[in-house]
Specification:
Strand order of the largest sheet: 2-4-5-9-8
CATH class of the largest domain: Alpha Beta
Helix content: 55-70%
CATH architecture of the largest domain: 2-Layer Sandwich
Number of strands: 9
Structural class: alpha+beta
Strand content: 5-15%
CATH superfamily of the largest domain: Histidine kinase-like ATPase, C-terminal domain
Number of helices: 7
Number of domains: 3
Mean pLDDT: 76
Largest sheet: 5 strands, mixed
Length: about 375
């Protein structure tokens, strides 16, 4: 548009000048034309007037395109712009901005408080985590202590029973042979306690070959039968033993098998309220020696037969804590002990109406 206006202005300046110059030249050359001079002069001036009119029109057009048009467009654009707000509107806008500033300040204060609360919660969470870790360590120590207590409970009870028997024999001035037997039994119980403490003092180490391995399971069961009369929880129980062979050699430690059998017999006695008859059956099945411990108690529901071998699971009450459950470590420890010799420990229904705990161990090679 601006280039077109420039060309129009150039034409408005150059064309009239050229035309006027040409006409002036013609007038000067025709001054001696004679009677036609007046007519030619008049025509020349009329041409000049026409050229001036054309020049004026071109100038107007150029001004329209180059100057007036942009001014009009600017004016129309200014008309489309919104009017400046009135004083009341400015006050409302200022009040709104002030409210937003105050709200932003309050939000910053609130956010700072929330961040402080989050930091406090994080500190509390760290403290709680440390307490949980400490509780886990204490629980582990407590579980170890319960295991030690359970393992030592049987030998300690036998030791106390034989000491009580020894005091009775001393008071009755019984024969020396009877008192010597009590002393031997006390020594054996003390040795068993020492072995248990030694094994518990080195957890995770592979069990070395035991001094009393292999063993005769029948001899172990008969020894347990003789000790039952001195155990506080077995004095009113009648323990019978049946064996299919004169000896039942097994590749296992006699002291460990005795500990497992004592635990099974004590559990059976508790299930029978410490009164009644317990039966132990021994037999050989191929390369295995099998011991069944049968009781006439309530038995073990089939749904619980896998759970009773889990640590800390128990359904039996503690005698000196009515209404509370046992620690639930005896069967778990017993199964682990038998499994260390390649054997197994399971539970089923007993012909006596209660539970039958079956212990299987590899037969020793003679």
């Amino acid at each position: 548009m601006q280039s077109r206006a420039r060309w129009l202005l150039l034409a408005a300046v150059l064309v009239p000048g050229l035309v006027v110059g040409a006409m002036a030249t013609a007038l000067m050359t025709s001054s001696d034309a004679g009677p036609h001079a007046w007519a030619m002069e008049t025509t020349l001036w009329l041409g000049v007037a026409a050229v001036l009119a054309v020049t004026f029109g071109l100038s107007l057009a150029a001004m329209r395109l180059w100057l007036i048009g942009p001014v009009e467009r600017i004016a129309r654009h200014m008309e489309e712009l919104p009017l400046p707000p009135e004083p009341d509107a400015l006050k409302r806008i200022e009040a709104a901005l002030d409210w937003y500033r105050r709200q932003n300040a309050r939000d910053r204060v609130l956010l700072a408080g929330q961040l402080g609360a989050v930091e406090a919660l994080r500190d509390e969470a760290d403290g709680a985590r440390q307490q949980l870790q400490e509780a886990d360590r204490l629980a582990l120590v407590g579980r170890v202590a319960m295991g030690v207590s359970h393992e030592l409970g049987g030998p300690l009870a036998l030791l106390a029973g034989w000491l009580e028997r020894l005091r009775t024999l001393e008071a009755e001035n019984a024969p020396q042979e009877q008192r010597a037997r009590c002393v031997r039994e006390v020594e054996q119980a003390a040795q068993q306690i020492e072995r248990l403490l030694t094994e518990l003092a080195r957890p995770g180490l592979q069990r070395t070959r035991d001094a009393d391995r292999p063993c005769d399971l029948l001899a172990v069961v008969l020894r347990l039968q003789s000790q039952a009369e001195q155990h506080p929880r077995l004095k009113q129980m009648h323990l019978t033993v049946e064996a299919s062979e004169p000896t039942h050699p097994a590749d296992a430690s006699a002291s460990h098998v005795e500990q497992v059998l004592l635990n099974l017999v004590l559990n059976a006695a508790d299930a029978m309220k410490r009164q009644g008859e317990l039966a132990i059956h021994l037999r050989r099945e191929g390369g295995w020696q099998t011991i069944d411990v049968d009781d006439a108690g309530p038995g073990v529901p089939e749904a619980l037969r896998d759970q009773i071998f889990l640590p800390l699971f128990s359904t039996q009450p503690i005698a000196d804590r009515p209404g509370q459950s046992g620690w639930g470590l005896g069967l778990a420890i017993s199964r682990r002990t038998i499994a260390s010799y390649g054997g197994s420990l399971s539970v089923a229904d007993s012909p006596q109406g209660g539970a039958r705990f079956r212990l299987r161990l590899p037969a020793a090679i003679r």
